């Protein structure tokens, strides 16, 4: 509540109150980084899931049940099948891995037909989305096609009580170059301002600072 000296005119009181409100509002919403350009806010990238260390893969070899198996991708990104040791799986799509297994197995059986199914999605680090700082539950998770900032914040349970959501930033890489953008998480989550929402891309990092007051 504002308290003014008794000798101050009503007009001056109004001007002071308006100025103070502007300053406070500016502090609450000020973000030194530019927002994502409007034309890029909901552009969805071309995306195919790639296998990463920790993923579980099922390998079916049609007509050869003894060669079918389920394995977990090792920390070095490789798997061992019933015929091949140390086969690189990380950074490949399930289709790419299936075709490679077919090529290798063709040395042992005639016209192999292989299907690879991925379970327990982990993917490679470059394709994970990360939330750090004052989220209710900081985490990392695989990118999903059509994932938005609002989806991500629901996953982390929103902001904690100390978060300064309108000073959060998005760190994104383009062709090896890192760029930082301002976010308005308070506007999105507390005010329901959907214009603060945006599409995410593989590898995005959201950093949420704590408020100074």
TrEMBL record:
Which InterPro entries did the record assign? PEP-CTERM_polysacc_export (IPR017477), Poly_export (IPR049712), Poly_export_N (IPR003715), SLBB_dom (IPR054765)
Q: Name one Pfam family in it.
A: Poly_export
Instruction: Kindly indicate whether the keyword Transport belongs to this entry.
Output: yes
The record's Gene Ontology biological-process terms are: monoatomic ion transport
Where in the numbering of this chain does the Polysaccharide export protein N-terminal domain appear? 44-118
SLBB domain boundaries: 128-208
Keywords for this protein: Cell outer membrane, Ion transport, Lipoprotein, Membrane, Palmitate, Polysaccharide transport, Porin, Signal, Sugar transport, Transmembrane, Transmembrane beta strand, Transport
The positions making up the signal sequence are 1-28
Q: Per UniProt, what is one GO molecular function of this protein? A: porin activity
The record's subcellular locations are:
Cell outer membrane
Task: Provide the membrane topology annotation.
Answer: Multi-pass membrane protein
Q: Which GO terms describe its cellular component?
A: cell outer membrane; pore complex
Please verify whether the record's keywords include Transmembrane: yes
| NCBIfam families in alphabetical order | pepcterm_export
The UniProt similarity line reads: Belongs to the BexD/CtrA/VexA family.
- What protein name is recorded for this chain? Polysaccharide export outer membrane protein
């Amino acid at each position: 509540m504002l308290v003014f000296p008794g000798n101050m005119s009503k007009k001056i009181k109004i001007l002071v109150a308006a100025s103070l409100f502007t300053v406070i509002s500016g502090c609450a919403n000020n973000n030194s980084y530019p927002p994502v350009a409007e034309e890029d806010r909901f552009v969805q990238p071309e995306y195919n899931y790639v296998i990463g260390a920790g993923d579980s893969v099922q390998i079916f070899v049609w007509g050869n049940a003894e060669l079918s198996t389920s394995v977990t991708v090792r920390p070095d990104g490789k798997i061992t099948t019933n015929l091949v040791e140390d086969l690189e799986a990380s950074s490949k799509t399930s289709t790419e891995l299936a075709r490679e297994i077919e090529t290798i197995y063709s040395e042992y059986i005639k016209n192999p037909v292989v299907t690879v199914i991925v379970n327990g999605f982990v993917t490679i680090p470059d394709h994970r989305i990360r939330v750090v700082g004052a989220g209710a539950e900081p985490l990392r998770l695989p990118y999903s096609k059509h994932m938005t900032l609002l989806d991500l914040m629901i996953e982390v349970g929103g902001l904690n009580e100390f978060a300064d959501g309108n000073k959060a930033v998005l760190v994104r890489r383009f062709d090896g170059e890192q760029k930082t953008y301002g976010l308005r998480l308070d506007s999105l989550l507390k005010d329901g301002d959907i214009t603060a929402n945006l599409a995410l891309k593989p590898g995005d990092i959201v950093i949420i600072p704590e408020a100074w007051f």
